[in-house]
Amino acid sequence: MGRVFLVTMLWSFAPNSGHAQSAMGIAAVVNDDVISLLDLNSRMQLVALSSRLALSGPAAQRLRQQVLRNLIDETLQLQEAKRLEIEVSKDQIDAAVKQIERQNNMPEGNIERLLARAGIGRESLENQLRAEISWSQIVRRSVLSSVTITDVQVDEAIAKIEEGKGKPEYLLAEIYLPFDIAESREDLLKAAQSLTIQIKRGADFATLAKTFSQSASAVNGGDLGWVRADQMDGNILAAVSRAQDRRLVGPVEAADGYYIVLRRSSRISQGVNVQNTIVDLWQLFLPATQNTADANMEAQLTKAKRISASARSCEEMKRLGTEVNAPQSGPLNNVSLSNLTPQLGGVVGSLAIGQASQPIALNGGIAVLMVCDKREEAVSSNIRADVRERLTQERAELVARRLMRNLRRSAFIDLRL
């Protein structure tokens, strides 16, 4: 469950007198651990209050089953952390609590008061945070030991981005329900349909994504950012491409589960700047006022035009700058065209080596630019780092799904509802 979500739901939560009566009831047994009806009922009310879900009718029962699955997964994650001797310290828990307070613009220590007012022990909050923190450590450990992103893979990913240039891409958010979290696909479809109906009736998409989605995007409210066509399952792409912006899509059956998708916006991909032009320049600068009626301005402009027409090399530009007494002139090396203003970038980009520009009016004077050297640089290190990070996150999600699936398959789970 996302940390921001966790506190927004506490404001209006009130103790339920029925909790004491159900405290001894068992909702499920997971290996050697018990999930009580108190645990389940508390989580149900928290989810309902935070997301504006209606707890009535068949939808409430389907929600109950989904919340129980989440609690089972948290229990399995904590058990795996114990097996791997991964411990979450009190300092980590306290830091996570403070982060929740900061994200919700709350004064420090306010969560304690909210929990007390809601009749919820701090242990309930700590268990959720402990599961979240320990699971992230488990996934990180597995990723570091098994995932290596090579330069070739980065190159291939960049090539795919370039292939999508000029094609549509979509700003999406998702709720993902994998097939392996339900007894049958029919049950899972009904759960997905129920969530879809609730969202259309006003339930908060981001909160439900944080609560129910089994994707790594859940921590960000299901946000996927901009997604290309080649990154989507065919069924999802077909549904998303037919929808309008700010519309809900689904549930859609994909190869691995059901997806509820929010199409937020769309655009035409600009690709990635796979080549960046780097130039060495010589700038001859003549100071002058910007008043075209000024005699000094006219004189400097005449000099600049003469230099532009006569100079054939950067050595000549240097000599001419000395002759006309232009002490602010000099070399500008390793200039990236992408870092120049559109106006200057256009001028410099059109110049051949040894070709002087026409006079350019700059703040405080007139400049003549000449390209001394020009070279193409491969994709910038920042772009490559971003692509590498995205690929690592994608691999981490696959690792997390596989680990969770294996934990479910090997566990003894006794449902008592």
Overview in brief:
This protein has 417 residues and is an alpha+beta fold. It is built from 15 helices and eleven strands.
Strand order of the largest sheet: 4-3-6-5
Structural class label: alpha+beta
Q: Regarding CATH, which class of the largest domain?
A: Mainly Alpha
Main sheet characteristics: 4 strands, antiparallel
What is the helix fraction of residues, given as a range?
40-55%
What is the total domain count? 3
Q: Report the strand count.
A: 11
Describe the fold and architecture.
- The chain is of the alpha+beta class.
- It has three domains: 3-148, Triger factor/SurA peptide-binding fold (Orthogonal Bundle); 166-270, Chitinase A, domain 3; 276-377, Chitinase A, domain 3 (Roll).
- It is built from 15 helices and eleven strands.
- The protein has a four-stranded antiparallel β-sheet with strand order 4-3-6-5.
- A hairpin with a 3-residue loop joins strand 5 (247-253) and strand 6.
- The longest helix has 30 residues, at 381-410.
- The radius of gyration is 30 Å and the shape is elongated.
Key attributes of the depicted protein:
15 helices; Chitinase A, domain 3; 417 residues; Triger factor/SurA peptide-binding fold
